[in-house]
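Data availability (excerpt). The following record was deposited with the supplementary files.
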Amino acid sequence: MEIRNIQRTGDMHYLYLPTSWCREHKIGSKSKVSIEQSSDGTLTISPQIIERKPKHLKLSIAEDDEEVIHKLAVACYINPVSSFEINFEKEMDFTRLLNQKRLISLESVEIDKKQITCHGAVTVNDPESLIKTMTKKIKNMITVMQKSYDKELIGRYEDEIDRSKMLIDKSIISSLTFERTTKSKTIDLYYISLISKDLERMVDHLIRISNKESEFLTTLHEVITQLQYIIDNTVNLNHKVALQFAKKVSKIKEFEVKDIKSYDKERIRLSLITIAEVITDWAITREIEK
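Predicted structure:
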């Protein structure tokens, strides 16, 4: 790393770019550079302004398996395209596609017998705010399960959590593909992606937990509350905070898998263990960045 002095003329502050860097990237007096500012105050100077724009994606497939088609549609949705269309060689029963989990909730996506289209797909540039929302919704979902156990409301929470995960994927893929400015650094995007994936997996099992499992739900609520605090304050994340969370998770006993109920509880525990590992990795990254 090279340290350079800041120059000042009047109210303007500036510094000289390294000559070797300018020569390597053919930077001259008429060149332009792009400047990005991250949440920690870091400025990144790029040798050229990137002006790539999302394009329209058009696909034609002979597939008639609705699960396979669903995966393709979601992949198109989370990637940075301005619009997309998927054309089928033969007519499909679109009501079967509408029954596919998450597909109906995608904004701007229309389905008919021979085509899936999306125009003006939503864009999100702040995955950190999405992971915060996702964590909060999970905590609220557990609260509903502890109290009223309103199945319809629990189902809506699950849909919103799935949607948050998709928007996180979309935001991260878009940021990495088009190098757009976000409030998060690339390494933070990596950790956010890992956490959101395991949170979604955990919720897939959580929705099957009975309200009779009050002790287990209380423990989960405490763990997710602590996780929410960490996610809301990642700027203060360090190894001590991470280890406190890991200890909290480790207190959840291992479940011997005898039936579906014990399987779901064990999968939830394993997801939380993985999240604790990611939080610890993230904390060490924060430590070495100081």
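Summary of structural features: The beta strands are 7-9, 12-14, 34-37, 43-46, 56-61, 83-88, 109-111, 115-119.
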